[in-house]
Amino acid sequence: MIRCTYTRPRKLRLYGPRDLQRIDQLQRLTPADRRSIAAAACVFPFRVNNYVVEELIDWSNWQDDPIFNLTFPQRGMLDDADFQLIYDCLLRGGQQLRLARLVRRIRRKLNPHPAGQIDLNVPYLDGEPLPGLQHKYRETVLFFPRPGQTCHTYCTYCFRWPQFIGDPDLKIASADVTSLVNYLERHQEVTDVLITGGDPLVMSARLLQGIIEPLLSPRLRHVVNIRIGTKSLSWWPYRFLTDRDSDDLLRLFTRVGQAGRHLAFMAHVSHPRELEPPEVGRAMARILQTGAVIRCQSPLVRHVNADAETWATLWSREVALGAVPYYMFVERNTGAVHNFEVPLLAAWEIFRDAHSSVSGLARTARGPSMSALPGKIVVNGVATIHGQDVFALEFEQARDPDWVGRPFFAELDPTATWLDDLHPAFGRDEFFFADAMRDFQRQRAQKLREIKAQA
Questions:
Q1: The predicted structure's pLDDT at residue 94
Q2: Do both 35 and 148 map to the same domain?
Q3: What is the mean pLDDT of the chain?
Q4: Mean pLDDT, rounded, for 319-340
């Protein structure tokens, strides 16, 4: 393990919706601008910390600053009518019950759990659902540890925003590691466990060890990859430098490799500025010294990183720091997607231009990829076939592994932003997987009915 040469501990200070007046930098905004942030923060989760506020945001140009847009909720995240209702409630004051009803109504229409996360992805063991687990793809199980369902700072575009709003009906979380282990023992096809959130690295090293150590058991030797999904490198690099248990955390990472498993550190990095502070490079060096591999991914997001130069710089900087560019995702169809989405055609053009301007070491990135109901679908490009311009699409991952790598085509629609907006090319009525998806959904619904009847 690299010895930490950065010896000045930094105390983490968190700011939420009730703390807007405590953020000195916000006081340069007009009262109307601050109320707009407060209004959006009534609906969408808001948390930011002192490191992000002090080190990453250019407050002299806050309206166009990518990190500001990445962390502070804004008016454009709500439609005009909903925004005005909430804004007026805040302006008048004393309308907490009405405000709560408004917020609840707005949230329910924002597609809080896209792509079948609740209905289709939750696995069963002995006829009982395992909340806090998801098993969508054959090889990979996701685990949502209850103490890790928060973050050092929330991203405005996060597709997991329902995790952070305090609604138990929408939250995915588990404190039952034993059920995870029992499920994995019966599913030898699983090679990867992704510990996700929220951000598991808000947890103490001791709590994280309680999850990882059981996965290293000889009984689970088929689980060869332990993944940790995290934004901590960007939002709080001191987690690996000077936090009280930083060294314990890194020793735990080392332990994974010593047990013959691979630790994949899945870093969520949205903009190259997140990698500029020297603390980030020091943190990455310490992580890499444990034997872990850092893989970087992010959605393509309007107002944050929707241009090729930003992505080329991001990928090149990741490689220079020893990380592997992994995915460019398409913003999911949930939450304030209307404010952040980029049309698929523009997304592919950005990806192509960025990909073509970096060296081969940075061309490990894949995308633009939609994590849609049937699987991860990549837009490979635009082709002209029999005189028709079409999107060339392909599954990178799928509910049925036989779909992976099979090319298919959609009519070229320059306004489409998601799979649901696309129509099959060449006069076909449906994509090749449509019948199988319907069968899968019917079988799942029937299984749930049978389980409820037995109960």
A1: 75
A2: no
A3: 94
A4: 96
What's 326's domain CATH number? 3.20.20.70
Per-residue pLDDT band for 195 (boundaries 50, 70, 90) equals: very high
Total number of domains constituting the chain: 2
Which residues have C-beta within 8 Å of that of residue 163, sequence separation ≥ 6? 144, 149, 150, 170, 171, 172, 173, 197, 198
Nearest residue to 269 via CA among 302, 233, 236? 233
Residues 44 and 131 in one domain: no
Determine the Cα–Cα distance for residues 89 and 101; give it in Å rounded to an integer: 11
Tokens representing 118 are: 């609740």
What digits encode the pLDDT tens for the residues 208-220?
999 999 999 999 9
Cα distances (angstroms) measured from residue 302 to each of 66, 69, 72, 330, 343: 9, 9, 14, 11, 10
pLDDT at 7 over 60: no
Of the chain, the percentage scoring pLDDT greater than 90 comes to 88
Q: Is residue 113 part of a domain?
A: no
Rounded to 5 degrees, what are φ and ψ at 317?
-70, -40
Task: Let me know if 153 is exposed, middle or buried by CB neighbors in 10 A (0-12, 13-18, 19+).
Answer: buried
158 and 268 housed in the same domain: yes
pLDDT at position 379 over 90 = yes
Residues 319 and 409 in one domain: yes
255 burial level (CB within 10 Å; 0-12, 13-18, 19+)? middle
Residues linked to residue 385 through DSSP beta bridges, in sequence order = 388
Taking only the tens place, the pLDDT of each residue in 249-288 is 999 999 999 999 999 999 999 999 999 999 999 999 999 9
Q: What is the DSSP letter of 54?
A: I
For residue 38, what are the domain limits? 14-108
Residues 303/270, Cβ–Cβ less than 8 Å:
no
How many Å apart are CA 280 and CA 272, to the nearest integer? 11
| Residue 388 maps to a domain | yes
- Of 200, 180, 260, give the one whose Cα is nearest residue 225: 260
Same domain, 33 and 150: no
